[in-house]
Amino acid sequence: MPSPRQLADLPYARHLRAFDEPLTDGGDYDTVHLDGADFDGAEGGNARFLECAFSSVNFTAGHLRGARFNDVWLDGVRWVGTDLAETDWLDAELIGCVLAGLETFGATLHRVTFHRCKFESVNLRTATLREVTFADCLLRDVDFSGAALTRVEFPGSALEGVRFAGARMDGADLRDATRLEITDGHDALRGSVITGAQLLELAPMFADVLGVKVADTGTASSRRTSDRRSGRR
């Protein structure tokens, strides 16, 4: 897994210009650097961010639904209670970011990497994730219901209370996840890759999905022996 890039490593770093203005709906932002800014209740629906960098920026509430993030780099960004539904992310890198209470349903993420990010109560229902990597992240109470996960990886990440009901997986790789706690949607793991140890941990849930009753070995034979001794047939 490659190390996260620094700001100076970005191919467009020398073209970046400081940006400290309010965001606007439908705004067009090209090669700007948002550094240390606080966007409380920002209105940036359908905005377009191309080759932009975000450093230590805070987004609280606000509306960025339908925004497009193309070739962007985010370091230490906090997203809290923000509407990011139906956003489009292409070639994005997020480092040490916090994402809490977000509406990101219907979003499209392609070639996106999350490094050491914390997800808390994030709604990714019906989202499309393709070639997305969650590296050393914490995903707590994240909802992937109805989402499509293609070649998605979770190296070093902990999944706690994650939901996959109705999700579709194609080559999703869960083998390197440090924790795999799935609340529902175990049947949606079809098409994913897991380890033998993970299979043993998930076996009771798989049995429940299949309607298989698991009982201690020997119980049936012991009952038959007891019936013979009592004369019951």
UniProtKB/TrEMBL annotation:
<dbReference type="Pfam" id="PF13599">
    <property type="entry name" value="Pentapeptide_4"/>
</dbReference>
<dbReference type="InterPro" id="IPR001646">
    <property type="entry name" value="5peptide_repeat"/>
</dbReference>
<dbReference type="InterPro" id="IPR051082">
    <property type="entry name" value="Pentapeptide-BTB/POZ_domain"/>
</dbReference>
<protein>
    <submittedName>
        <fullName>Pentapeptide repeat-containing protein</fullName>
    </submittedName>
</protein>
